[in-house]
């Protein structure tokens, strides 16, 4: 997320992205970071914990640009991708639909995705579910990845997830209703 986009996007999604970046490093999960038009929007903000990670600049909304596809092609057993970032209705949706088309399982981390508009975010998450992506939360996905509290890395991971993610604003769109995650 660039500084300019951070100023316009709902910030709570950043908490989930930061959680996930730390856990991915602990679990040695490959992380691919793209930057949407960094010359105009600025570089990735340091708060996301992506220092030291290679960043792929892009202008199209899907992150599956040739350089990223080459990077992913070097992962011989790639079956799933985990997506987080901004703008959910543009970059996340375009990437997810492209990855689904390539036969990959797509997991979209709802509390690690943001948009300038909550309505756009909600509609995008709904469409992604309808298209076959798995919409989940950072904590739910992290616990699925670590699989067992006996894992020697669990104590470190537990420190990253012990505090609940701040309210991302999605539940306020469902007064008296189920948010549709059933």
CATH domain fold name:
Rossmann fold
Q: Radius of gyration in whole Å, from Cα?
A: 16 Å
Helix content class = 40-55%
Any idea how many domains?
A: 1
The CATH homologous superfamily corresponds to Isochorismatase-like
The CATH architecture can be given as: 3-Layer(aba) Sandwich
Report the principal-axis shape: globular
Q: Which blocks of ≥5 consecutive residues have pLDDT under 50?
A: 1-12
Secondary-structure-based class equals alpha/beta
SSE string: HHEHEHEHEHEHH
What is the element layout, followed by pairings?
Layout: H1 3-8, H2 13-26, E1 33-36, H3 38-41, E2 55-58, H4 66-73, E3 80-86, H5 88-101, E4 105-114, H6 118-130, E5 134-136, H7 138-146, H8 154-161
Please provide a written account of the structure.
With 182 residues, this protein is α/β, with parallel strands linked by helices. The protein has one domain (3-165): Rossmann fold, CATH 3.40.50. The chain is 42% helix and 15% strand. The chain has eight helices and five strands; from the N terminus they run ααβαβαβαβαβαα. A three-stranded parallel β-sheet has the order 3-4-5. It has a two-stranded parallel ribbon with strand order 1-2. α6 links the parallel β4 and β5 (134-136). It starts with a helix and ends in a 21-residue tail after the last helix.
In short:
This protein has a single domain (3-165), classed as 3-Layer(aba) Sandwich (Rossmann fold), CATH 3.40.50.850. 42% of the residues lie in helices and 15% in strands. The protein has eight helices and five strands.
